[in-house]
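re: ur question from earlier - yeah i can do the single chain one, its not a big deal. heres the input i used so u can compare w yours
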Amino acid sequence: MTTRAPTRDLLIEVGTNLIAEHGYNATGINAVLKEAGVPKGCFYHYFSSKEAFGLAVIEAAAVDDEVSVQALLGDVRTVPLERLKAFFAAKRADMVACKHRRGCLIGNLGQEMSAHSDVLRDALDAIWQRRERQLAACLQDGQHDGSIRRDMDAAALASFILAGWQGALLRSKIVRDCTPLVDFECTLLAFLKP
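and the output i got, formated as tokens:
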């Protein structure tokens, strides 16, 4: 097992925060270096380009998110609908904590970068697919126990839910309020009932 250098980790952490707040294109390397308090040579020691840095930020964010999402959606001790409610509650809490300014880093970067970088787009798509599989597994558990409707494919339903949730996150950022998230969740839970 390899461990990452503390300076590399610091750059990724600072970059994640700045990109989440301002976007990839508006976050310059100099701003990251200034916020991290490290010289430019350190950046290029760890990253060959801004795109390589962006990829590292995406991968680090994905690992953290996948662990937390799996803890919520994959907890087989909890009934599937309660897992979904816990997932939505955690994401709403994240929005409140950032005062509705950030939303989902992966979703935000997907909107911003999909037309500009195939490397980042492919990484974001892979992350999105893993997240859909996590959600689909939870939905399948609910279909098997009869608490979630069985007339729809779980994978297609997971894709639909995540796309709708991203829209609700965007709307929540615009209005700076959780109402779109609550409305989405209530409508979805009613829709999922058998």
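The domain at 55-192 is CATH 1.10.357.10 (Tetracycline Repressor; domain 2). not sure if urs matches, ping me
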